[in-house]
Amino acid sequence: MVEDFTLTVNETSFRRFFDSWQAARVGDDLPMRKAITLRDFAPFASDLLIYEQPEPGVLHCRLMGEHISDRVKIYNRNINWLDLVADDMRQIGAEWWNSLFATPCAGVMQFSTGFINGTNRISRAYLLPVQHAPGVVHLMGLASASDVYEAGQPREALIVSEHCFQSKYVDIGFGIPADLPEASDHKPLKKAWAEQLFTG
Questions:
Q1: What pTM value is reported for the model?
Q2: How far apart are CA 12 and CA 5, in angstroms?
Q3: Which residues, in sequence order, are bridge partners of residue 86?
Q4: Residue 98, phi then psi, degrees to nearest 5
């Protein structure tokens, strides 16, 4: 993982993910979810996520790859993942997700995750919109996680964005959400942790 998370879009795995998504498009339209075939996306299957938003402020995960489920240890399609966001970031997180569903653009985010076993990692996700049905957008994500930067006591539930949340919109031909900055450091990664994670 590169130290500057905004350069994530240039990492090889994310570029290949975008290229596969682009190949599934018909003209300038978003790809239909049924066009997202295992053959084309098999290299990403273990790190793949598909999210839906049944209503603003509710985020459900419809699909979670094996590498991610091994880390989080929970998977339930009824979980509202925004409920796991740290209190001080919950509104900001909800606005970020709402904007991605409302505007057909890509998003990159870097965020901390505190896992049930007490470890903490930095995750990065590249999110791309797909059409589940006419007028219904899902977000397909490719996620990666850093080494552990801090370990503590086991906890009862995941906590997301307690230590870090940074985001960036990526224009895929339809613009980015109006009146919002292209990139935001709501809670930047501490320099000491960044040096620990991105050296060697």
A1: 0.91
A2: 14
A3: none
A4: -60, -40
153 vs 147: CA distance, rounded Å: 17
Amino acid at the residue 95: E
Residue tagged 């740290």 (tokens)? 86
On whether the CB atoms of residues 131 and 30 are closer than 8 A, the answer is: yes
Neighbours of 197 (CB within 10 A): 17
Here the tokens at position 65 are 């790859």
Q: Report the CATH number at residue 53.
A: 3.30.450.20
Helix (H) or strand (E) holding 13: helix 12-23
Q: What pLDDT digit, counting tens, does each position of 53-66 carry?
A: 999 999 999 989 99
pLDDT (tens digit per residue) in 102-152: 988 999 999 999 999 999 999 999 999 998 888 889 999 999 999 999 999
Distance CA 121, CA 111 (A): 8
CA-wise closest residue to 30 among 169, 141, 179, 137:
137
Structure tokens at 34: 């049924």
Count structural domains, the chain. Answer: 1
> Where in the sequence is the domain holding 51, given as residue range(s)?
5-197
Q: Which residues contact 167 (CB under 8 A, 6 or more apart)?
A: 96, 107, 108, 109, 110, 183, 184, 186
Contacts of 147 (CB under 8 A, 6+ apart): 121, 197
Q: What is the DSSP letter of 104?
A: -
